Amino acid sequence: MSNTAVSNSTVSNSNDSSSTHSESYASSNADNASAVQESNNEKLASYEAQVLDEINETHQLAFITSDNLRIPTLKILQADGVEFEDAMAVHLNKDTALRSFKTMQYIRILDDRMVAAQRQGRLSFYITCTGEEAAVVGSAAALKPTDMIMGQYREQAALRYRGFTTEQFMGQLLGNEMDLGKGRQMPVHYGSKELHYMTISSPLATQIPQAAGYAYGQKLAGKGECTLCYFGEGAASEGDFHAGLNMAAVQKTPVIFVCRNNGYAISTPTDEQYKGDGIASRGVGYGIKTIRVDGNDLLAVYSATVEAREFAVSNNEPVLIECMTYRLGGHSTSDDPSGYRGKDEEHEWQKKDPIHRFKHWLLNKNWWSEEDDTLLLEEYRTEVLAVLKKIEKMPLQPLRTLITDVYKHPTSQLEAQFDELEEHLRHYPEHYPASAGRV
Amino acid sequence: MTTMNLLQAVNNALDLAMAENDSVICFGEDIGHFGGVFRATSSLQEKYGKDRCFNTPITEQGIAGFAIGLAAQGSVPVAEIQFADYIFPAFDQIVNEAAKFRYRSGDQFNVAGLTIRTPYGGGIAGALYHSQSPEAYFCHTPGLKVVMPSTPYQAKGLLMAAINDPNPVIFFEPKRLYRAAKGEVPEPGYEIPLGVAEVVRSGSDITLLGWGAQMEYLIEAADKVQQEGISCEVIDLCTLLPWDIETVEASVNKTGRLLISHEAPRTGGFAGEISATIQERCFLALESPIARVTGLDTPFPLAYEKEYMPGTLKIYDAIKRSLSF
Question: How many other C-beta atoms lie within 10 A of the C-beta of residue A62?
């Protein structure tokens, strides 16, 4: 594969010839697209330029391959947290930088502790964001708080960035009285109307055409808001991805699509998921302004999303950002990556840890110190464990939440079924420990 | 009052809903300037602009997903799926997303404004892929409402109610009757409540139950047996989910017999659900087995469409069998 940036299952994501340290959008714009390929093959380049210029005529037979459009990867920070010498100027203020950093640290702690809690049998299931914190926080930090976020399920860091509390996390994970979702979904299916974070659903990619529709409504409302939609490179194989991107482009909607290309869909590596130049190349095909960034570089993700948001809202057009990153943990607590990938590969990616990288940038700027860091981590560890202990003692939601919210008002049939159920539960409480004493 | 066909009634309901509420937005394949392949959305783009009435790419899952997102945002989308036969790419969005939106979020989010309209049914030489009646698939999904009008008056009143209902509604329009069914329709807007069946004709010997395009055949059969002194009570279910059990139950308790007819294949059809419920509730009142007059368990045919259809004569025969049981 000519662009190793997309073949991150081979651990060679970062240091390739096609990275760029200054912002460069690949788009369907003929000038940009043909400029990229001049360096390749002149004959093909001029052919493609003709196609893109809609002259669409040639007298020589020539096929186009994905090599003709090599999409570079924007990188600003090196692995040691020092900016590349020729990197574009970054406009990230201290408050946003620290809030982003603290969010990443919080999520790393939360994820570690919740995996441990799952191993202890205190949670049924968990999914970590480990390794992908910068891709999520960097993009979420570039939004207005009233912009809608529609996630896949690995973006708890965006929710935290907006202020989701430890109590709210625990409530959802335990599905009890504290759960905004009323105990109806598996752990990590968070949602918060207050924080403009759409409730997660398990089916993959369904949020993509929904994000287009939501953003269309935002466009008509005219408040200058947009929708940011997360998904993985695996979900991008679903029909809904293609339906959603096409509709977003055709219907001119202010939506930012953020693909977390983290190398694996459960056990399936990217080279068994797609053959083209990653997910970014598809954006170009749909006529969507597109950029690929190093997803472990918070400055690159943030800068790209700030530009994307400005463009999306000013022009009512979608943007696609492909974040090249790596899922450092398993798919979920039900998964064991040792069955499909080597430790060496994981170690290589641990060296590119997004939190480590950003921390050193902050240290170099004197916005943060090792002491601050030690204190912060300790505070988060204590808080997470204390709140888990507190919330796990809380009772379940009332039994009636079994039938409410199916419709705005329960149907008479459903009421009758519930009466029948209650009658049954009253007879056999010892067989239904969850509802015993609540009927 | 003015005379309209069923298509004009649908168009009129959309027109009034769009005039009444700026948040009502119509979209689907070919529904813009062209007005839809059946012309249900005629002149709406001219009246309300391209932002509120527009063509989409050919992507049913995209249309449904887009509509769900738009409804979640607070708008009132009325999406058209060109033929009910093509609704299946949208099945996941409808069943896993729209139907569960309120429940899974603990009522933080909903798709209250969502309506999906789609023409269904045979009798137009449409064969396998322009004739299906897929209502039963959706009736198996808590969270949805499923509505099927049979007359212009119902089409307008039920569609306006569907658009204003705070739950997602799938609205199946009987395309065979689009131009064939004509009737008096009030000019101002009005709603017919969802979940309420209409007793079309009162009778004493047997209850005939159906919805949508089958109502025409049921009424013809009732007329035919009336000449032989058999009195039929004819009920139009109108809404299949949730369905009006009480009205059907009361009728069967009175007549002692029930015949249910739908165009869809028999096995797994909605008549099975109704039969089960009615035998639970009316066991001692029943004087004969509940009769089902339905399509065959085949794909929808072409050359032998009339043979497949649960038409007037088949219903007539079934009534006679029930009465002589």
Answer: 12
